[in-house]
Give the backbone structure.
Amino acid sequence: MQIVTQRNLQRPDCDDSNGEYTYLAAENAQLKRELENITRQLPHLRQLIEYAADALILHDDQGVIVDCNQRCAEMFASPREDLYEQNLTHFLGNLTHIMLERVGQLPAGVREKFIGSLLRDDHTSIPVEIHITAFQTNGRRLHVSSLRDISDRMKSENALRETQTKLSHTNVELCRANERLEHLASMKDQFLANMSHELRTPLNAVLGLSEALMEDIYGPLTPKQRESLQTIQQSGQHLLDLINDILDLSKIQADRMSLDIVDVDLDSLSQQVMRLVRSQASARRLRLHFSSDGAMGMIKGDAKRLKQIVLNLLSNAVKFTPEGGEVGVDIHYRDGDDMVRLAVWDTGIGIPADQQNLIFEPFVQLDGDLARQHAGTGLGLSLAARLSEMHGGRMEIDSTPGRGSRFTVILPGPRAPHASQATAEIDRPALAAHDRPSTERTPGTGGKVLIVEDNAANVTHVRDYLQNRGYHVVTAGNGLDGIEAATQLLPDVVLMDIQMPGIDGFEAIVRLRRDRRTEKLYIVALTALAMAEDRARCLEAGADAYLSKPFSLKELEILITKIPATRGT
């Protein structure tokens, strides 16, 4: 509220006494009106001061309180009349002198802000925000201070600081947890790589030696010996399939598997898989059926992984269907939603409804006790379901105990699912990406082969097989010896193991490529490291081809016969 006075009277000349009287009378009347106006406004002004949210204090330059409002008495927890003539130092301590000294250095009307603690008469204290201003009146310097209780604000700020501190600590813990998770993931990858190597290396010797024996490398076999070797090979292949399933599931769970998307003839692929299980089905006298409406032809997908899905489902169907039953594959392209439905059905034992939500979990077996009738690890359905999801699809089940089951894989039609740019794992001989002219030699016409391998069992069957085929074979037990032998022999082909003592195969390949005498040698990386990135590392190091252990000796020979003309010379 503002009090406004205005005087428009003009003082008369000094000689005019009547005019002087008239002037004084008029001025007096105007002053009276102004006083009445001020008197009317004073209660309003006092109410504004009294009901202000902040404590308002009028004090001198020594801090002695001259006047204050009711809010001040409430904040100071003291009767109002007891506050008059008291010094602010009683309530604010040394802060009073700091404020007065600071304001005393500033011109009148300039406001300063301070934060302090108010000690109340009830011996409690509260945080306050103080604004102080100096002014001159009748030659005297006075101060107006407003005090605001900031207890709630301080609590909020403290709570905010505590929250920020906790958040900071949480972020630190999260960073540490992420580092631990990354370390564990790295350890897991290393563990998988090592386990793959440790399992595949002896398995390579088992399968390789049995294949060499089956090829009569060590002399003719009796029918009983051949039958026994076939059992060894089948058991070894089953173990290899198990290792591959475990590695595949681990890669999917770690988001390390990628898809190699191509055009896939789903009808043709499914019939190929059915031919793979035909012998098993015949042994159980099962009838196989195939049907397709043939409306679409090609779909987009990873042919290897789609084949794995169908094979896992068909193998389960054959395994869990009693003799004389039926197993089939139905493919439907025309369901009105641009999705392909591939169903594998059987007339087998079926699955109870309360267990159907468990069968897609890894390592789950519905007859998992020691007396179970069906062999298996419980990985097939889990892998098939996850591979379906990687293709942008899903898997559904319809099963009735005693009547059979129907597993339906629902996949996108012509639209390609999302595919990673990473290279998919290759289980068969992989040549470098660039094309080179080849000069196929007839198997058995010979050639110089250097085997660089530290495992004697793996060396034996490969060396014996190739020598039987007419090749001149030299062996080296580590990377350094392999480099020396390659420099002296200049072989047509170098079969390079990767994990070896001294220097590993990667380093040996790099050194051979740096030497002008050996830079054009044809190098095949043979390794039990079977992850997708292992193949890429071999090719990046300079290998021309890659074989994952265990490998077929026939595949190795086929690969050797296709030595590019620019190599081995």
In short: The longest helix spans residues 151-214. The CA atoms of residues 451 and 475 lie 5 Å apart. The chain has four domains: 52-149, 162-252, 261-412, 430-561.
